[in-house]
Amino acid sequence: MRTVDVSSKFETHRVASAYGRIRLKPETVRLIREKKLPKGDLVEATKLTGIFGAKKTGEILPFCHPISLDFVEVKVEVGEDFVEVFSTVSGIARTGYEMEALTAVSTALLNVYDMCKGVDDSMVIEEIKLTAKGGGKSDWKRDLKGIKAEVISEDESLKDLAVSYLKSLGAELSRDAELLVLIGEDCNPESRLETLESVIAFYDFRRSPTEVVSPIKVGRSSEGKLMVCIPPSENKLRLFFETFGGILRVLL
Predict the structure, then answer these.
(1) In the Cβ-directed half-sphere of 113, how many Cα atoms lie within 13 Å?
(2) Given this model, what pLDDT does residue 26 score?
(3) Three-class SS string for 117-162?
């Protein structure tokens, strides 16, 4: 068993929201509204429990990465015979906040159950679901379907690896390409995408500090083709396609 390796993912601002509902007797709801439950104010306690649950997600679930939470909000709404819980969790991380949002709702609903079990033996947790997420790969165009690409390299093994990445993204191999991947070639694009190159260099340094002296170059040829120039290194090739391959479409 092992966790998923997220070292190649972007650290981006990510957000997730979840929802849950528990059904109770109308008499129990009346006690909640009047704050007459034996254990006190259910609404405020449930909000606090949900926040606490979100923060403890990485400890409760062994395969869930512990990540920094920059924002957690839990809302509680009381209906005629139910209590609804809404959570939103966000932060800057390599992986999303879906589990934190769901755990916030789950622990909040369990708190409702705990605070009411002495007066209501009919409670049913009816629904827990993710309602929204953003900031991760689902927000990016992750494929190159319809894009014509060509790989140029004297190293056949590296060429085959690059081709396999392009095919997995849906690119079509063609000599009449709009995307050129040059491996180990003398490559100097006419116009450089320096901001993107800086971001790539930053991630390259974090993963392989000793190899940062051989930068990956990205730019356009005089014909307007997108050029990706990668040093003859399998590590460099994997870094680029596993971390940045999914955003190539937005550059074309």
Answers:
(1) 15
(2) 97
(3) CCCCCCCEEEEEEEEEEECCHHHCCCCCCCCEEEEEECCHHHHHHH
C-alpha 67/C-alpha 6 separation (Å) is 12
Residue 13: CB atoms within 10 A of its CB come to: 11
The structure's pTM equals 0.72
d(C-alpha 207, C-alpha 114), whole Å: 46
Q: To which residue do tokens 């690896």 refer?
A: 161
What is the reported pLDDT for 231? 93
What domains lie within the chain, and their CATH numbers?
12-138 (3.30.70.640), 148-251 (3.40.980.10)
Write out the two tokens for 16: 């997730």
24 contact partners, CB below 8 Å, separation of at least 6: 32, 81, 82, 83, 112, 116, 120, 122, 123
Taking the C-alpha atoms of residue 83 and residue 236, their distance in angstroms, rounded to an integer, is 52
The yes-or-no answer on residue 114 being catalytic is: yes
Of the candidates 41, 114, 143, 155, the residue annotated as catalytic is 114
Q: How far apart are CA 79 and CA 83, in angstroms?
A: 6
Q: Which structure tokens are listed for 74?
A: 């839990």
- Contacts for 83 with CB less than 8 Å, ≥ 6 apart: 21, 22, 24, 29, 32, 42, 46, 76, 77, 109, 112
Which residues does the chain have with pLDDT short of 50?
none
What share of residues in the chain are helix, strand, coil (percent, to 5)? 40, 25, 35
Token pair in block for residue 88: 């939103």
User: Shortest CA distance to 74 belongs to which of 38, 39, 92, 100?
Assistant: 100
